[in-house]
Specification:
Elements (H helix, E strand, L loop, with lengths): L3 H38 L21 H11 L6 E2 L5 E2 L2 H4 L5 H6 L2 E4 L7 E4 L2 E7 L2 E5 L4 E4 L10 E5 L2
Antiparallel strand pairs: 1-2, 3-8, 4-5, 4-8, 5-6, 6-7
Helix pairs in contact: 1-2
């Protein structure tokens, strides 16, 4: 017969890794859920519009600023560039499936298909996957939710936050 203390020790040795793994998986899923929720909460807002003076000044595209602001508000982090212009990486960098900024970061993995909360980028634009074949992104006049990135002929890449 086994000593009751040994049984408790064996159970703890089994249970602790299970709890840690489950919590880390849940955190990743929750962060992506938060990214989606935060992105959708800004639909219709003009803060990241072309005309807005937010961050990079008026008459500039701010889709990358929108993505960075959303991810950071949701509890994640994005790579920043520090020469010339100190700020989050641009839409073209998000659209590069081999981006050294993202691959070196350790919190981002590139995927062929997207899930809700993933970053979607291509053709000089970047947004957040927020539904089945739907994205939320900063457009010319406001933040919009539409099928950008899933339209015929568009070539995009997906980045998933994993930290």
């Amino acid at each position: 017969m086994m000593n009751p203390r040994h049984v408790v020790i064996v159970l703890l040795l089994w249970a602790i890794p299970q709890v840690v793994f489950t919590r880390s998986q849940r955190f990743r899923r929750d962060t992506r859920t938060n990214i989606k929720r935060v992105a959708d909460s800004y639909i219709g807002r003009t803060r990241w519009s072309y005309a807005s003076s937010h961050a990079t000044g008026s008459n500039t595209n701010k889709c990358n600023i929108f993505v960075a602001d959303v991810i950071e508000e949701a509890g994640g982090s994005v790579p920043h560039r520090w020469w010339g212009f100190a700020g989050p990486i641009g839409a073209r960098e998000w659209g590069n499936p081999s981006s050294s900024f993202l691959t070196r970061d350790g919190c981002w993995t590139n995927h062929q298909t997207g899930r809700e909360g993933d970053v979607i980028a291509g053709g000089g634009h970047v947004g957040i996957v927020t539904g089945g074949r739907l994205t939320t992104s900063a457009a010319r006049y406001s933040v919009v939710k539409n099928n950008w990135g899933y339209r015929s002929g568009q070539s995009v890449t997906f980045w998933r936050y994993t930290c």
